[in-house]
Amino acid sequence: MKKNKTEDIFIQFIVENKENFYRLAFSYVKNAEDALDIVQESIEKTIAKKASLKDGQSIKSWFYKIVVNTSLDFLRKHKKMSLVDEEALEYFISGENDVYQDIDLQRSLDELPMKFKSIIILRFFEDLQIDEVAEILHENTNTIKTRLYKALKLLRIKMNGSSF
Fold it and tell me: How far is CA 93 from CA 22, 35, 41, in A?
């Protein structure tokens, strides 16, 4: 009976957060079909590895870790990173008035090295805490703080440079 309750919680979690997982995968691969494949593969991996979820470990950070790693594996296998065209970006940004600012942000973010880009995506776009980001990326909390500071500094430089 405990197993069914755990499965029910897991299924509910996936259903309630599927858009977040898709957005996270899409932020890495910039392709709708690939992002859906990554989410599906992540769910399959999670079902296969659900016994590895430790007591007290957040299912949220555990699943995000799987989505991030699956996305990175996909990028390594396909060695591709594509820029999002304006039309696709408008489709995925719901209700934002200033699309141009978001395009500049997206382009600047895409130019960052992956170790910085991942931290910004997880911290600000997925609204995860620093310790959750550290857990997902298998890094020390202080390392994440340092990289976040540097990533924001690089992003600020890129954004200011693109506005001239």
Answer: 13, 16, 24
